[in-house]
Write a structure and sequence with these properties.
Helix content is 47%, strand content 13%. With 298 residues, the protein is α/β, with parallel strands linked by helices. It has a 6-stranded mixed sheet with strand order 1-2-3-4-5-6, sandwiched between helices. β4, α7 and β5 form a beta-alpha-beta unit. α9 crosses α11. The longest helix has 16 residues. The two termini are 28 Å apart.
């Protein structure tokens, strides 16, 4: 077993899980950026040169889980594993990332029978925008959760109202409930929901309620649909959003890939758009020996 290194570089390590690196490996079977980041991070000293890079990813993730280094990706991975894959499944629930909510972007949204948003406040974040984010999320999602570490826990509990859930990511990579979120689906704003959807999704929702789509020029369609959607009762707008997004943003096609990838990378592929034809190439690349992968940059 290799001895853990002292000059661990968390910034470089986090980038190994970025969409840019994952997409490049999936599309080309290699990534010069991956090779450069491994060298910068000094992770290559923690596994044998002939070990596959899937082991390097697991080693990297194990180090990032330490609260001294925890980054947004670790929190996303916790939600993906503990909530989406353990409590629910890719067959029964959908997960959205960077979902537009007014002027904000929701870190993670889980859709099952309802909608739950998770705002991540890691040890590296400040709380300056939290109130504005919660205000925007309330207008679209039934349940609002903030997930954080010990450093921010008390401040978030004190500064947020009783309907906002507060979750703690523990040192053992478990999610502990400090305060349960209250379902407020009857308080959402249908017009705000409309603004977060694609036009075809809004059309499907309206038609599902028997609302006739007006015959107007394409230049006027957005305004016409928004007016109709804004008139929906909040609970109908929310229920329609959940039902339709679970279909249009479904991740079931990733189930085989997720099961075959190392634990550390499952959240990355769930939050990175990948072409179906690239799945096999990504899996094959994970078996590349480290010494060979380091030559990707040469």
């Amino acid at each position: 077993m290799r001895t853990p290194i002292d000059n661990f570089q968390p910034t470089a390590v986090v980038r190994l899980f970025s969409a840019g690196v994952i997409k490049e490996i999936a599309r080309k079977g290699r990534s010069p950026l991956f090779a450069r980041l491994v060298e910068e991070s000094a992770l290559s000293k923690e596994i044998a040169p002939t070990d596959p890079i899937r082991e390097l990813y697991d080693k990297a993730f194990s180090r990032l889980k330490h609260k001294k280094y925890r980054h947004e990706y670790v929190y996303k991975a916790a939600i993906a594993h503990k909530v989406l894959l353990n409590t629910h499944s890719l067959r029964t629930a959908a997960m959205l990332t960077e979902f537009r909510a007014g002027s904000c972007k929701a870190d993670i949204v889980i859709l099952n029978g309802t909608s739950t948003v998770y705002e991540i406040k890691s040890e590296r974040d400040n709380l300056d925008r939290l109130q504005a984010q919660i205000s925007a999320y309330r207008k679209i999602f039934a349940k609002v959760n903030v997930i954080t570490g010990e450093a921010h826990l008390e401040a978030i509990l004190q500064s947020t109202s009783e309907d906002v859930g507060v979750l703690l990511l523990t040192d053992r990579f478990q999610i502990s409930i400090a305060r349960e979120a209250i379902d407020k689906s009857d308080k959402v704003n249908p017009a705000m929901i409309f603004d977060s959807l694609q036009l075809n999704e809004s059309r499907i929702i309206l038609e599902s309620y028997g609302i006739r789509i007006p015959e107007v020029p394409n230049t006027q369609m957005y305004g016409a649909l928004r007016k109709l959607f804004a008139d929906l009762p909040p609970t109908q707008a929310h229920e329609g959003m959940v039902r339709v997004l679970k279909t249009t943003r479904n991740l079931l096609s990733l189930s085989g890939l997720v099961e075959a990838l190392p634990y550390s990378l499952r959240a990355a592929v769930l939050t990175t758009p990948l072409r179906q034809q690239d799945h096999a190439r990504l899996l094959s690349a994970m078996d590349t020996p480290l010494n060979e992968a380091l030559n990707w940059g040469k």
